[in-house]
Amino acid sequence: MEIWISPACSKCRGAIGLLDAEGAEYTVRRYLEDVPGEDGIRDVLGRLSLEPWDITRLQEAAAKELGMQEWPRDAGARDRWVRALAGHPELIQRPIITADDGTALVARTEEAVRDALSR
Questions:
Q1: In the chain, how many domains are there?
Q2: CATH number of the domain that 33 lies in?
Q3: Which of 39, 15, 41, 37 is nearest to 28 (CA)?
């Protein structure tokens, strides 16, 4: 299992703490430093069964500067959203856990982290 984190994020620290408490084996990806490319983002979106706008932090300054709130949310706009996430990784919701069974989830709650552990 891999967890995408920002060390400054309290939800990320909480997820790591729970993984450690449960003795889970995992790899940390500091995705602001080890930025996923467009293909990596598409892969995670497929594993999440979500669209890029579903994992975009629209309250971030970069999203506001890009006007993302007004962007279309349809198949034709998907690549535009993915490019924006690859170019501005701070817009990616966190933490994201890629589970060993090939799925992934946004692990912002203890319940979600436990769900990842059960996969």
A1: 1
A2: 3.40.30.10
A3: 15
What sign does the CA torsion over 91, 22, 28, 48 have? negative
Give 66-87 pLDDT, tens digit per residue. 999 999 999 999 999 999 999 9
End-to-end CA distance of the chain: 10
Q: Of 11, 6, 52, which Cα lies nearest the Cα of 29?
A: 6
Helix H, strand E, coil C: the string for 83-105 is: HHHHHCHHHECCCEEECCCCCEE
What is the per-residue pLDDT across 18-44, written as a single tens digit (0 to 9) for each?
Answer: 999 999 999 999 999 999 999 999 999
Q: Domain containing 67: what range?
A: 2-118
